[in-house]
Structure formats: structure tokens, C-alpha cells
């Protein structure tokens, strides 16, 4: 699929090419060989193992310059997949340990690398600040403060990643309220490892505009109806769900059923090298499994562009680029 793509659910560190992480580890004399499999890619057994490997890989990224290099490498790869607009999750937990001054320095380096990538490859990038659920509500508040203080042209959203099986959603409401007051779009991971109750919790307690994954809402017809009625957008990452065993086979994935029920669905890669996927592969598998063609994908990209947290001028330019603008 060569059509221009919009990607909304993407973790910056999670997109780190294994070769880059290996190189940085070598430079620092860090022994992280255990996180790689025989093929040189990231290797782990299950979701808990994935989170552990993710943290080890991220541990070699030490400062703003490393993040600038990471951003450049990731955006070059993402643009090569035909992605013209990307929202990527960036965590103050990893970038400066939730210290606002340090966070500003990381962010400056990342945003500058994104501008360079835009000039070189035409990809427009915006950042969504994420808190990490299993780090708890206090750290989430610090992350939200970083988000609120740097909301603007580049930082356009606030979200929650991490282990959905840990903690109580309502405890994170303060962080999300702070981000909402700063004008940021809101999203939270839910309905991936937990079922419909988890999706309801982020809708009711965090009042999110989008849900990361959310696919297990499909188990509850009333919730599917609610999503369709309210227009809350699902950031669906089918290849991630298959790789981590949320669903055993592509044909079991509910994305087509959710879409048919009127839910706004979008397609993203989540952590592409960790799941051995790319945007092109996601589209190809969806085309093979559900018979989706270019018109379906064009419609999905329009949904994604309209759900993007960027300002109206950026969205208008994006829609025009997708050839959906009226003129
Ligand atoms: Zn994710």
C-alpha cells in the first residue's frame, strides 16, 4: 500500500531500531545482549517480558542528544512506510526523570529532530506526553505537569501507557484534568489486557477523546454502541495484539466488526520493531484478512486525520494532503 498514512498510536522508544539500541549500548559499554534474539530483533515471551525488554532497551538512551538521534532514525523509517503524519508517545519518565527543566531539554532536541525529518522526508510529527500507569498516580501528576507546561505546537496530547492490569483508573483523573485544562487531547491505553470494564473506566473517569487499543470493547455490545454513538476513536494496533497474543489469529481480530458497528477505528503499529511490523505490513495483513481495499484505507486515514490532536491548520493541511480537502 503506497497511499499516504496517518499514524496515531506509536511509542517513540518502542520504535527504536534494534541496531541503534545495540550501537548506543556498545558506546556506553552496557551489556544488553539478552534482549535480542538470534535474528538480531527484540526477543521476549509475553507482555510482562515485553515491558522488561522495553525498559532495558530504553535504558541506553541517556540524554537529549540520544533522543534526537532516536527521533531521526525512527522518523526516517516511519516516513519510508508512507506515514505523512505521526503522533508519537513521549514519556517524561524516560526523558529527564519527570524534572521539568530536563524534560524541556529533551523535548527541544526531539522537536528539532522532528523538524529536520519533516524537511528531509515530509513527515509531520506531533508529541503526546504519556504517563506510565504502573508507576502510579503521583508520577502521573508529574508527567501531566510536564505536559501542561510544554503544551503547544509540538506537544498536542496527554496519555497513559504501561500495564493496564495495575492501579485504579480514577486515581489518574487529577493528571488528566490538568492536561485537559492545558488544552491537550486525551488518550489512554485500555481494553487490551483488560476487558470492557477497563474501557468504561477511561471513558468515565478520565474522559478521554481516544482509546489506545480498546479492542476488547468488542466483547460488550452496549459498550460498542456507546463508542459508536459518542465517536470516541480507537487507536487499534492489530499486529501488536497478534504479537502479544491478545488474539491468536488475524481473523480473530475485532477491528472489522468494530468498524462495521460504526466505531471510529484507526490503524497504528504501537512499537513496530518489537512486534516485527510496519505500517505497510499492517495494511497488507488487513487487506488479506478482511478484504479491505484502497478506499477503506483512505477512509481510515481520514478518520485518523480528524482524530489527530494537532491544531486546525495542521489538520487542514493534512486532509488536503490526503486529498480529502474540498478544493
Ligand atoms: Zn501502546
From TrEMBL:
Instruction: Give the highest taxon in the source lineage.
Output: Bacteria
- Entry keywords, A to Z: Hydrolase, Metal-binding, Zinc
CDD domains reported in the protein's UniProt record: ADA (cd01320)
Q: What range(s) does the Adenosine deaminase domain occupy? A: 4-322
Keyword Methyltransferase included in the entry's annotation: no
> Which coenzyme or cofactor does it need?
Zn(2+)
Gene Ontology terms, MF aspect: deaminase activity; hydrolase activity, acting on carbon-nitrogen (but not peptide) bonds, in cyclic amidines; metal ion binding
InterPro entries on file: A_deaminase_dom (IPR001365), Ado/ade_deaminase (IPR006330), Metal_Hydrolase (IPR032466)
Name the family the entry cites: Belongs to the metallo-dependent hydrolases superfamily. Adenosine and AMP deaminases family.
Q: Which NCBIfam families match?
A: aden_deam, PRK09358.1-3
Name-wise, this protein is Adenosine deaminase
- Organism, by scientific name, is Rhodovulum bhavnagarense
Q: What is the lineage of its organism?
A: Bacteria, Pseudomonadati, Pseudomonadota, Alphaproteobacteria, Rhodobacterales
Amino acid at each position: 500500500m503506497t497511499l499516504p498514512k496517518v499514524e496515531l498510536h506509536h511509542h517513540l522508544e518502542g520504535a527504536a531500531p534494534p541496531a541503534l539500541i545495540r550501537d548506543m549500548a556498545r558506546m556506553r559499554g552496557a551489556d544488553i545482549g539478552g534482549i535480542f534474539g538470534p535474528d538480531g530483533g527484540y526477543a521476549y515471551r509475553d507482555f510482562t517480558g515485553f515491558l522488561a525488554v522495553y525498559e532495558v532497551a530504553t535504558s541506553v538512551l541517556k540524554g537529549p542528544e540520544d533522543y534526537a538521534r532516536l527521533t531521526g532514525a525512527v522518523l526516517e523509517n516511519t516516513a519510508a512506510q508512507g506515514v505523512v503524519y505521526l503522533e508519537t508517545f513521549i514519556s517524561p519518565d524516560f526523558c529527564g526523570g519527570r524534572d521539568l527543566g530536563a524534560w524541556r531539554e529533551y523535548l527541544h532536541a526531539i522537536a528539532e529532530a522532528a523538524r529536520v525529518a519533516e524537511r528531509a522526508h515530509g513527515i509531520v510529527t506531533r508529541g503526546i506526553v504519556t504517563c506510565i500507569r504502573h508507576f502510579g498516580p503521583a508520577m502521573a501528576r508529574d508527567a501531566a505537569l510536564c505536559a501542561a507546561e510544554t503544551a503547544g505546537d509540538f506537544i498536542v496530547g496527554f496519555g497513559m501507557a504501561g500495564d493496564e492490569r495495575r492501579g485504579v483508573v480514577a486515581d489518574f483523573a487529577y493528571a488528566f484534568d490538568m492536561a485537559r485544562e492545558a488544552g491537550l487531547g486525551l488518550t489512554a491505553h485500555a481494553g487490551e489486557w483488560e476487558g470492557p470494564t477497563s474501557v468504561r473506566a477511561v471513558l468515565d473517569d478520565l474522559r478521554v477523546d481516544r482509546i489506545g487499543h480498546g479492542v476488547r470493547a468488542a466483547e460488550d455490545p452496549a459498550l460498542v454502541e456507546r463508542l459508536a454513538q459518542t465517536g470516541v476513536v480507537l487507536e487499534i494496533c492489530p499486529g501488536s495484539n497478534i504479537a502479544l497474543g491478545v488474539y491468536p489469529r488475524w481473523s480473530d481480530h475485532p477491528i472489522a466488526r468494530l468498524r462495521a458497528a460504526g466505531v471510529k477505528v484507526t490503524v497504528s503499529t504501537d512499537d513496530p520493531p518489537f512486534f516485527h511490523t510496519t505500517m505497510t505490513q499492517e495494511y497488507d495483513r488487513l487487506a488479506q484478512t478482511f478484504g479491505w481495499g484502497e478506499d477503506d484505507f483512505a477512509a481510515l486515514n481520514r478518520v485518523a486525520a480528524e482524530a489527530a490532536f494537532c491544531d486546525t491548520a495542521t489538520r487542514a493541511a493534512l486532509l488536503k494532503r490526503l486529498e480529502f480537502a474540498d478544493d
